[in-house]
Amino acid sequence: MDKLDWKEIGIRLKEQRKKSRLTNERLSELVGVSPSFIGLIERAASGVSLENLYKLAQLYNCSLDYLITGKSDAIHSNNTTKFTSLMAALYDYDDDEINTVIELAKLLRGRVEVRQIQE
What we know:
Blueprint: H1 6-19, H2 24-31, H3 35-42, H4 50-60, H5 64-69, H6 79-90, H7 95-118
Helix pairs in contact: 2-3
C-alpha cells in the first residue's frame, strides 16, 4: 500500500457506526469530536488522527488494521455490534450502575454454565 485510501477508511467507519446503531451525534459524544467531523471523516473530506482512529477501533471492537486496510481479524465479529450497542447503552450510567450490570452479567454467566453442566 503506497498511501492511505481515506475513502475506503470512511466507508468502513460509516459501516461500523451503522452496525453499532450509533448516530453521528452519539458517536461524536463518545469520541469527543463534533458530529460534523464524524460526517467529514466518513465522506473522506477530512483525515482522522491516529488517536481518534484508535478510539473508534476500541468503540467498534475491531483492529486499527481492519479500519485502515479492511482486512478482517479475529476480534472483528458479529458480536461487535452487540458489544458496541451495550457500551452505548451504558454510556450515561454512573459507576454504581455499571458495577451492578457487571455483577448481573456474572450471575447470568454462572447460571448458564450450571445449566450446561446439568444438561
